[in-house]
Amino acid sequence: MANLVQIRDLKVEATTDSGRRVEIIKGVSLDISEGEIVALIGESGSGKTTIALTLMGYARPGCRISGGSVSVAGKDMTTLSEKQRARVRGTEVTYVPQSAAAAFNPAATIMDQVIEVTRIHGLMAADEARARAVDLFRALSLPEPETIGSRYPHQVSGGQLQRLSAAMALIGDPKLVIFDEPTTALDVTTQIEVLRAFKSVMKNGGIAGVYVSHDLAVVAQIADHIVVLKGGEVQEVGTTKEILSNAKHPYTRELLSAFEPKPREAADTAETAPAPLLKIESLVAGYGPSQSDGLPLVRAVEHVSLKVEKGRNLGIIGESGCGKSTLARAIAGILPAAVGKIVFDGKELGRSARERSRDELREMQIVFQYADTALNPAKSVEDILARPLTFYHGMNAKARSVRIDELFDMVRLPRNLRHRRPGELSGGQKQRVNFARALAADPKLILCDEITSALDTVVAAAVIELLKELQRELGLSYIFISHDLSVVEAICDEIVVMYGGKKVEDITPTKVNAPHHPYSQLLFSSVPKLDPAWLDGVEQDPELVRAYCRR
Amino acid sequence: MTMTHSETKSARISGTRLGYRFNIIGMFGLSIILCWALVAIFAPLIIPYPVGEIADLDYFGPMSRDFWLGSDYLGRDMLSRILMGARYTVGISLAAVTIACFSGVVLGMIAAVAGGWLDTLLSRFLDALNSIPSKLFGLVVVAAVGSSIPVLILTLSVIYIPGAYRFARALAVNINAMDFITVARIRGESTLYLIRSEILPNIIGPVLADLGIRFVFIVLLLSGLSFLGLGVQPPYADWGALVRENIGGLPFGAPAVMFPSLAIASLTISVNLLIDNLPQKIRDRSE
pTM value? Predict the structure, then answer.
């Protein structure tokens, strides 16, 4: 029997701005049978999205399909004319993008956008389409399916919008749906619900799917087959069970091992240092004009107290919008706290960075989430690292050069990268430079704000290993802010759970399996596990979900 | 991207050796600008007749072997006058555009980085300046103070500071919101360092393009002022003044009125061509 999708020896190439041609996809072949979900997994730049897009006969600007065939339901997408392709898109093959928020038009109601596909292709009458859309909303377990369509995109949450974009893809009754990292931008507590909705709709409708992701645990929940990609080539193909339990290719094993929690050996220096390095008492910070009581209008952090011992690490976790980044900004003095005391190394610090001395600033460094925006794109890596050396330590050119070499070695970057600009480095390399800049100041405490969330699992695991090693060598302390529990567990001695601007629980990794606060319980149980049966098996108290998830 | 590249035959575009791509239109613009710049520098050495000398017996003379571009309303050699006029047109405009863009861009970056009341004060003051029509402002100032080259340069630059300020501030505000600026701030860096080392390198491309456009505006405004008799004073003349003094030759189709106009057009158009086609750095360097 012929498969629904047959990709044979697919080649895609891109032309760079110097006129050079680069092959992005180097002869990929894969099959998808009817009603089957195949996951494409690999690091960024491995070509997974490019392959998914060729299923619609589409190549991004500057790229073109240069060889092979992509047959979907008997039609070869590479040889169809643009007009014929347009007829197939939205009816036979549809696409769910990574960021639903960017894919919806903010000026039109959701219903109008969901049924637009049926209007363009003339599939059914508008009333019929609306009725069908409501059915789909119900199937995707969206709240208030009857009326949600009359809202505008900004009036629903991120998780809901992602499910609505799936409804948009499903309304034309497609044979194949392409999911392009649809849950990467969501919190774990939201992701679980979205995954469930996708899975049930796909299984009930018998629709085939391509699920693009870099998260193996998510893929394990939803896919029948997994295709592991690297450098535009297929590394390994197998059923989900085979890949998870019996991976053959070294790259797949690396992906899997990045998932294994590596328990951190408890630091025993804590007992010998009685005075904490950083102590925060009842900190309040927020945005907007200050009110009559001296507090800001919107309080993102409310009366949070915590302390960090010398040489130990504190993790702060919580969903997006819980105030964890604001807390870091208040500690660093970027956003001056309205109320509260920050005591660092025995001295009370000024609330704003301007009130702090140069040495106080030097001893506490912050590393931001997006290395792309945290590094000046117009400067070479060498200049970026040289500035703190001149500024804090007054080094001359020779001493700087030696120190930069040392820093490169510390963060495991090849020295020949020093003349490159940030735009010429990979994501992991950029994050290392970002971190090296903080190290150049010789700090005592580094605030890491979601530094691994923009990275792939394999690269993130390497960065975490690096942080641990540097801590052993240099006796640093970290405050590690993340929404990813496994990352925090791997590196922190103590974990603070935040919800709605408040600290809800203090836990140590040894007790991590027994959190007391209901929100912590919900958060911990929502982290996907590398077990295909996890999603169906996980049970959550619906009361809890309603109370804490703004879905 | 960390993938192995398979090299295929590549079409080379001129200029790629230096790591920059520079297309033919941009080069054309640049060469005309360079020609005029050389003319401006070496004009006294190459003019066939002194600027003020009445050399031709006829006025509005045609193009001839002795007078390549004909003669003007007094019978002076047009070629010499245009070559010398390049000094005023190119020189005054260049000085004015440099002052305008330098002050505008520096103030704009300071306003973006400092924010608060300084930003408000500067922005409102320059908005107020912007609300005065530029030609009228130029006319009033030059008429009141009297026309001299420093006055012309200063007037022209004051007229174009608000635009340069607005442009630079808009760009700098975007850069100022980036994380690397926050990192530099909490490192304790001064405003001067922030604008010089963190912001300027990131806005220099658009600022140069803006400088090109402003240069053209200033050439045209200077020509306009000279046409009204308030620019460079006789016997010297910039290109705008040459058009004005020979406007009487228009009914005769005299070359004396055509060529200064062509000179203005060639300079302004080639500056525009250049800034639209500035050399672009090639990011793909993995050869």
Answer: 0.74
